[in-house]
Amino acid sequence: xxxxxxxxxxETIKTAEKLGRLIGAxxxxxxxxxxxxxxxxxxxxxxxxxxxxDVVSSPTFALVNDYRGDNITLYHFDxxxxxxxxxxxxTGFYDYPFEENAAVIEWSENIRESLPENTIYxxxxxxxxxxxxxxxxxxxxxxxxWN
Length: 147
Prior knowledge:
Layout: E1 2-6, H1 9-20, E2 28-32, H2 39-49, E3 64-68, E4 73-78, H3 85-90, E5 102-106, E6 120-128, E7 131-137
Parallel strand pairs: 2-5, 2-6, 4-5
Antiparallel strand pairs: 1-7, 3-4, 6-7
Helix pairs in contact: 1-2
């Protein structure tokens, strides 16, 4: 587990950029964090770190946005309105080629049972102001990158 404190949206983006440089095909990142915690801001940093030029926006109304790089696509899901396996199935979630691409999932707690075992969990807590506590649970995969 990696725990990072950031003090501004810019620091949150820089933290996510660092992680974005480590993300590859098959990676799924599941966010936990309340409304306004910084999940979309973190995704902006991931996209930058992955070398993509896309403008990141919340997928709240679209359910999924995709950001394309030269060799990989990052799918950005919002599962806020997903309440059942049937709801998840209706989004086409299982049809995406995750093994060749990567995904970030906001409101992942709504589909936790459907996520693969190697999912990277990121919890973003907002103790107040612009400060964010970012907890990355990755099974130790990125531990050396944060020292």
